[in-house]
Every structure is written in structure tokens, then in C-alpha cells.
């Protein structure tokens, strides 16, 4: 693939993503969305974040890694506990990263 074609694909993908996101902003006041759809939209950020994080926590070298030596999984579980206990994004990130660094040093 030539550099210009790659640049064109990246620009087209970026433009498509921008227009999809803009469509929800542009129709917000003009179109009455059903209540079930509005309720479902509240769960999109959590679902997207879970979809991005779960593979990194659960997979190692293309295989499922549920063993106790998976430091990312252990740190992620601790971050979940911190999030449930404190309800603070900052404490969750700080605690999860501290646990990951500590576990990486130990193992």
C-alpha cells in the first residue's frame, strides 16, 4: 500500500468516525429519541471501556490467562474493588496502577 493510499484511508476513517459522532449531536434537539434508546445510551461508555480493558486483563500471548501469575488481572481485580469501595475514578486509577507496578516488581 502506498503512503498516499494509507493517508487517504486514515483520513476517510477519521472523517467517517467524526460524522457518526456528529450525527448524534446534530439530531439531539430535533429528534425525539425513544426512552429505551436514551436509557441504553447511558451504558455505552461503560461498555466501551470494558471492551477496551478486558482483553488486556484476560489475554496473554493470544491465549486466555486466568492464572495467579497474571499481574494485570490481579491489579484489575483490585481496581474493581477500589472502584466499588471509593466510587472515585482517581483512586481507582491510582490504586490499580500502584498494584500493577508492585506486582510487576514482585513477579
Folded structure, characterized:
The protein is mainly alpha-helical. It has 2 domains: 1-32; 42-106, no CATH class. It is built from 5 helices and 2 strands; from the N terminus they run αααββαα. The protein has helices at 3-27, 35-41, 44-58, 71-86, 89-106; strands at 59-60, 63-64. It has a two-stranded antiparallel sheet. The longest helix has 25 residues, at 3-27. The model has no long low-confidence stretch (mean pLDDT 92).
Order of H and E elements: HHHEEHH
How many E-type strands? 2
> In what range is the share of β-strand residues?
under 5%
Compute the CA-based radius of gyration.
20 Å
Structural class: mainly alpha
**How many structurally independent domains?**
2
Number of helices: 5
Major sheet: arrangement of strands: 1-2
Summarize the amount of helix as a percent range: over 70%
Instruction: Name the shape in a single word.
Output: flat
Kindly report the average pLDDT value: 92
Terminal CA distance reads: 42 Å
How many strands, what sense, and barrel or not for the largest sheet?
A: 2 strands, antiparallel
Low-confidence stretches: none
Write the layout of secondary structure elements.
Layout: H1 3-27, H2 35-41, H3 44-58, E1 59-60, E2 63-64, H4 71-86, H5 89-106
Antiparallel strand pairs: 1-2
Helix pairs in contact: 4-5
